[in-house]
Amino acid sequence: MYMKLKDGKSKVLTLSYDDGVVQDIRLIGILDKYGVKGTFNINTGTYLAEDAVRERYYGRMKLSEAKELYIGSGHEVAVHTLTHPFLERLKPDEVLTEVLEDRRNIEAQYGVVARGMAYPFGTYSEEVIELLAKCGIAYSRTTKSTMNFKFPENWLALHPTCHHREPTLMEMAKKFAETKSKYPSENWLFYVWGHSYEFDNNDNWDVIEKFAEYIGGRDDIWYATNIEIYDYVKAYESLQTSVDKKIVHNPTATDVWFLQGGKTYCVKAGETIRI
Asked: pLDDT tens string for the chain (275 positions)?
């Protein structure tokens, strides 16, 4: 019995962008155009003041701008700490404050349950990981590229596939989109991260435009936010089976697909099936 992804697919793509900057507006426009989904990690202690006047279109968003952009967008809003410190350099109570206050603000401002996170600067320690679990954080992304499509072993040290500036980004996209795994039981996760302001800094918005245009809109790829992927995997892991795997019960609120005996099955939320 092997996990398959939503609708029985074997590939999932997700993106993750940090800091809540105004360039996210243009980025989300591109992602939406091609049906790609992502997660946006916000520092709620660093919004631009509502009465501030920008000299140029750059920097952090105002809260009103962020709410207009993210609420109802279909993209995830996740924790990035209150003020973007190096968490491993803080005392435990300071780590808790940075994470919990950011989470509390996101939940109040965007009307969501915020369970995902990205580490500021991509850095962390084992003590930080232990503290995140106590804060109700389900996963937290690092900045360490795996350069592969494997699912994480530790969701609180979630390593992405690569940054969008990776020179081989389009080569990996082609491999991901056009290569069929030798093993029907295998699933691939392609995870790209970055900061949207980098596209302005490097005058290379064509990088993300070309990537999204190429990889988007494919019937065999699931386009998901970080938390959607996490929740799906955990739903699969929660399936209850008889010893002979002929009876499968899904106690979760998520429909789950799995492969058994060369055939793909779906067990809906709350359903029990007999094979």
From this structure: 999 999 999 999 999 999 999 999 999 999 999 999 999 999 999 999 999 999 888 999 999 999 999 999 999 999 999 999 999 999 999 999 999 999 999 999 999 999 999 999 999 999 999 999 999 999 999 999 999 999 999 999 999 999 999 999 999 999 999 998 889 999 999 999 999 999 999 999 999 999 999 999 999 999 999 999 999 999 999 999 999 999 999 999 999 999 999 999 999 999 999 99
User: In what helix (H) or strand (E) does residue 117 lie, and over which residues does it extend?
Assistant: strand 116-118
CA–CA gap between residue 86 and residue 119 (Å, rounded):
8
Structure tokens at 238: 């929660």
CA dist 231 → 59, 101, 160, 161, 248 (Å): 32, 23, 17, 19, 19
Residue 87, Cα to own-chain centre: how many angstroms? Answer: 20
What is the rounded distance in angstroms from the CA atom of residue 108 to the CA atom of residue 114?
10
- For 137, residues 6+ apart whose C-beta sits below 8 A from its C-beta are 79, 99, 103, 115, 116, 117, 156
| CA–CA distance, 2 with 9 (Å, rounded to integer) | 12
